[in-house]
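Lay summary

Proteins are chains of building blocks that fold into shapes. Our project writes down both the chain and a compact code for its shape. Here are two examples, one after the other.
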Amino acid sequence: MEIAVCRAADVALLDQYIGSPGTVSTHARRFARQEAGGGACLVAWLDGRAVGHAEVIWDGCAAPEVRAALPGCPELNGLAVWPPQLRSRGIGGALIRRAEGLAREHGRRVLGLGVAADNPRAADLYARLGYRPLTDYVDRWSYEDRDGVTRECADPCTFLTKELASGPLDVKQP
């Protein structure tokens, strides 16, 4: 398995192998943010096929509760392994470790991520990797479905953080 930063040519392969909800490619939006310097998209490859992805968003989670609790904390977002039968084989953990490495390379000393209240399997993985609860929040997002209708989603979540290096946390103060 290889974990690599997403390239332009990878976006179509991600759409083919992993897909996006609705009509607009989530992978294209994430890649555009990467190209603008706002994040880094990671892709897990196994035997030439995209089997997982994650994004580090440098300016962090959009939820006001998270921004108030730890301003400037970069967020690991959109972690997914596909197809489901490949889960619990180390792919998600490898994506997280690579994201932590990128955060360190960018001078960050903490990384955060959200976990949905109804996803105990992911919560267990994050706890094993050293992530600890910071604050509860509601993750709000939307997408346009195949009929062109915008769907609003709201998931109760907990934002977890992990200190990546010794010393004070490298975050912006309000």
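And here is the second example, written the same way.
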Amino acid sequence: MKSKIVAASLVVIVLAGCSPREPAETPASSEAASEAAVSSLAPADYTSLANVMTCDWPVKKTDTAESLLATYKSYAQVTDIPGAEGITQKGVVLYGNDPRRRVEVFFYDDALTEASTVLIRGDSQWSGPKGLHLDSSLAEVEAANEKPFKLGGFDWDYGGYVSDFNRGKLAKIKGKCTFGARFGIPENGGPVAESIEGEKTLVSTDPAVIAAKPIVQELSVGWPKPEASTEDDAD
């Protein structure tokens, strides 16, 4: 089951590597402050480099649970992270008391020494390439890619993941990390046709997909297994 969670989180958009930066200071949060943050989030600033995920920020490939705890101190915690099918996987959560900055880090191994995926979801205000962020629309992702792309059918545990960017701008492999997106249908979305539900591959130009008005609900950075090699290098 652990491999399913890792596989579901692994990504297919690629980011350029950037020099690592020291984590920005975050005020300590009490339980009351944390609850207030959940109910009333400040407007997101997707232009701030401090909140843009890259191959090296806020987590780099060589990071382990130990190194993340040493870097982020009280803002990092080893804990069980929920995954698909009600399964949890032990990993590291950064800024767990601040839903705007929450980052989930998964590992290939039980010792938490081989980073696999860095995931944002929920109310996190981190962003990715070309300003893409949670709640970005299908059209915004397609415009950033400059090509249509493929994604999984909706309404099942592993649905909505982008599987192929069709050699578009978001498919370039740089810095040997990948960046991926998962779409979901929001409450105020359009009608969900039966043809776009279930375990199948869809295309972003499908009228039924467009009509459903899906939005990005997860963004992630990932790396291949340490023993694996990638044939593509940075462009």
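What can we say about the second shape? Confidence is low (pLDDT under 50) at residues 1-7, 9-40, 229-235.
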